[in-house]
């Protein structure tokens, strides 16, 4: 239906597809927004219809009502509003078919502010106990911990990324997230052992039960959720391992630039999230040590 939300979503996704083809946007962004906006169109409305049938000049209250259908998943709800807002910005600034953005100014439901919850030492132990050496799940955890890469990059890594430098294997890859710096890191023994321990070897380290690479980040993410559930771990994601790795590096005294090199960050302020907290704890430990010398 012309001028419906479904119609606007279709035009916006076609625009995003053209940007991906021109290498001006990431395929991951396209997939995420396609999934979110299509589910948005299928959401039921109070009058028995769907949001896709609404006129795209919907009021702000309609977007809030849609967001609230995902209130039990605040992170996803906020990402939905973000996608809707991006679509309307395009409709106003480039397509010139809209004059107002109904998603502007909608407050976030997720008040945590810290993003994904970092895995604890106990989480890591429980996961490895549930998924022993030689399993795909164990390899996934090892790959994430010893590369600190994003899940979409983890599913793509394989022997083609291995480079021999003076007898030492290095992993080199360009992260898929737009604006990320290239990564070149030594392939540490635990990761090398886990990768070579797989009974089935393929184009990528991580393979499905059918022996094929995971087709999307979402397919691997879904598998990770099942592995976590089997280990009794709740509320944790692959990004939480990346965060845990960064915090461990900061606690070990790694500099901001060292963490940037491993995490593919190009802006220091991103890595500061991890180094500042660790530096404060180290300073506090030094201060406490000084207090301990006082006679009391």
Notes on the structure:
This protein has twelve helices and three strands; from the N terminus they run αααααααβββααααα. It starts with a helix and ends with a helix. The chain has helices spanning 5-21, 27-42, 60-68, 74-93, 121-130, 136-147, 151-154, 189-196, 217-230, 238-251, 256-263, 268-292; strands at 162-165, 168-173, 183-186. The mean pLDDT is 84. The protein has two domains: 5-93, Orthogonal Bundle (DNA polymerase, domain 1), CATH 1.10.150; 121-283, Orthogonal Bundle (hpI Integrase, Chain A).
Strand and helix layout:
Elements (H helix, E strand, L loop, with lengths): L4 H17 L5 H16 L17 H9 L5 H20 L27 H10 L5 H12 L3 H4 L7 E4 L2 E6 L9 E4 L2 H8 L20 H14 L7 H14 L4 H8 L4 H25 L4
Antiparallel strand pairs: 1-2, 2-3
Helix pairs in contact: 1-2, 2-4, 3-4, 6-8, 6-10, 10-12, 11-12
């Amino acid at each position: 239906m012309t001028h419906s939300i479904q119609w606007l979503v279709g035009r916006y996704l076609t625009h995003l597809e053209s940007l991906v083809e021109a290498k001006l946007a990431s395929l991951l962004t396209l997939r995420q927004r396609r999934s979110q906006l299509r589910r948005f169109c299928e959401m039921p409305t109070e009058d028995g219809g769907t949001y896709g049938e609404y006129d795209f000049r919907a009021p702000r209250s309609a977007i809030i009502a849609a967001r609230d259908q995902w209130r039990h998943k605040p992170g996803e709800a906020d990402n939905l509003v973000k996608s809707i807002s991006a679509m309307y910005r395009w409709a106003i600034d480039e397509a010139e078919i809209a004059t107002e953005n109904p998603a502007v100014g909608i407050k976030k439901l997720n008040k945590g502010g810290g993003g994904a919850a970092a895995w604890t030492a106990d989480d890591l132990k429980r996961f490895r106990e549930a998924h022993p050496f030689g399993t795909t799940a164990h390899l996934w955890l090892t790959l994430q911990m010893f590369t600190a890469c994003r899940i979409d990059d983890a599913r793509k890594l394989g022997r083609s990324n291995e480079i021999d430098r003076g007898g030492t294997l290095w992993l080199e890859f360009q992260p898929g997230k737009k604006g990320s710096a290239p990564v070149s890191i030594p392939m540490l023994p635990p990761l090398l052992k886990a990768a070579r321990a797989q009974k089935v070897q393929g184009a990528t380290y991580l393979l499905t039960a059918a022996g094929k690479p995971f087709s999307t980040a979402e397919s691997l993410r879904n598998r990770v959720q099942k592995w976590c559930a089997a280990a009794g771990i709740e509320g944790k994601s692959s990004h939480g391992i990346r965060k845990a790795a960064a915090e461990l590096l900061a606690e070990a005294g790694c500099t901001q630039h060292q963490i940037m090199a491993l995490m593919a960050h190009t802006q220091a302020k991103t890595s500061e999230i991890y180094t500042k907290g660790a530096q404060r704890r180290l300073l506090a430990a030094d201060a406490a040590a000084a207090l301990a010398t006082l006679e009391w």
